[in-house]
Predict the structure.
Amino acid sequence: MQLAALAGELLPAAYGDLRLRGIVPAIEGAALRFRARDGGADVRLHVASSDAPATLALLAQGDWLALVDEALEIIYYAATAPGWGVLPAGPLPEALAAAGLQVASGMKFGTRYRVYRDSESHAAWLLHLLRDGDSWLDIVRAVRVAHGVRKQLVASDGERCLALEWVKP
């Protein structure tokens, strides 16, 4: 709900930015829709303030998110499945372990957990558990750290997990 409410003010900024990039998006409620350049996938783009509370509520796998700051600078993220397959029910660390993944502390990367494939010595993912008070700017920082250490950031609200990756439209 908050994402949609804030998008009303920021949607024109994202629309204009896409137009400058040669993309003509269609307005679809509180989101924009366009064809991505790389492969022509149909993209639904949600828009939010970088200071807004971070929530996965309106994001689905394959959606994009445009975060807009006070200077109207925009950064784009794609939300995808983390590649873990279907996880069994239960608390996330235990569900990941039951799915054959290794879970370790992610504190040295500023996240809650590192997640490894069973046979690998380096974590492929950093798992950030969203808490009340986390803003999208917190997620921007986490994605930046993950990218810098060649890992993928996965955000979880306790019910779902989405990998967030920086993209250029």
Observations:
- Residues 2-80 form a domain with the Trna Endonuclease; Chain: A, domain 1 fold (CATH 3.40.1350.10).
